[in-house]
Each structure stands twice: as C-alpha cells, then as structure tokens.
Amino acid sequence: xxxxELRLDGNAVGGILREVFTHEMTNVLATCVGCGSKGRxxxxxxxxxxxxxxxxxxxxxxxxVRIVRTSTFYCVDIAGVQLLMTxxxxxxxxxx
Length: 96
Ligand SMILES: [Zn+2]
Known about the structure:
By secondary structure, this protein is mainly beta. It contains 1 helix and 7 strands, in the order αβββββββ.
C-alpha cells in the first residue's frame, strides 16, 4: 500500500474532532511547552481583556492559550501547549 492511498482531506477527521471537543474543556489536561508541567485547563491563570483571554501556566507563567474574539471568529492560539489530553467520549447509546 502506498502512503498516498492513506491520505484524505480534513473532512475525514470530522468525527473524531466532534468527539474530542465535546468535553468540558476546563477538565482537559494541558502540558506546558515552557516547563512541561501538566494540569487541568481550569488550573491555568486567566488574564481577561474585553477582546479575549490569555491562560498562563501557574508554574512558569508562559502563555499556554490565547483566545481572541473578533466580529466573526474565535481565534484560538494554543502554541504554548505541548499536548492536550481529553478522556474518551462516553457513548450516548450504551452509556459506557
Ligand atoms: Zn509552564
């Protein structure tokens, strides 16, 4: 099998993205790019501004997440996050 046979466009990832981003995001674990510490998004330090928010690492003060609201979009910068970890979704059909 050639690698080109495995390649699809971004529409193919719609299902898994819906699973990942349906969680309560404050419970998602984020690993800081700056110091490697891992903690819940809820534990980051928020600096709010009318245009949006900056979430900083409580250990090293690096900006992990920046969210800016425009008239048409939310711009989300997670360049300060090395890894986001969410639990797997619970199946609504089985409850497991
Ligand atoms: Zn840090």
